[in-house]
Design goal:
mainly alpha; single chain; 66% helix; 2 domains
Length: 182
Amino acid sequence: MASDAELTKILTVASQAFNNYDLTDEAITVYHKILGHFPADILEAATLQTIAEPGRAFFPAPGEIHKTILELRRLADDAPSAFEAWQQVATAARGSYADAWHDRIDQAVMQLMGASTPGQAMRLLGRATTDEMISHRARFIELYDRMEGKSRTEQAMLPEVREAARRILSGQHVALEDRREE
């Protein structure tokens, strides 16, 4: 998590690239609320990447920097596309297991086959007919894409919002804290 001082320094340096932007204490408070939960090194890299966008004339809003952080995380995640994931599953079902693959593949194939372990799911899939494999492919891609979308949505949520969503799903009363200083 970036400290107040680290975040202020990152924003102050970045604001120097824009002669039309006055970085106020109030603005820093807003940026900290939206971005303060990220590590300083990631925040600095994303801020620099965001202000370096060709044609940028204005200092980026917190959401723009947040979006860049999420894009950088997706690049680092290196998760395969749904089709690439299915190719790995289909190859493994034919008996040629991959050394390692993304955890989401295990989750999707287990859900697809109604299995409790990846090994059990692969054994069931390995016995599927060609027609069943076509059907399984379509369903797997749908499941995998849904899991990817859910993961991206969760990553994009602010920590307070993620916690509120968790409490809503568990049936608890939800009220986001008012953290403004009096």
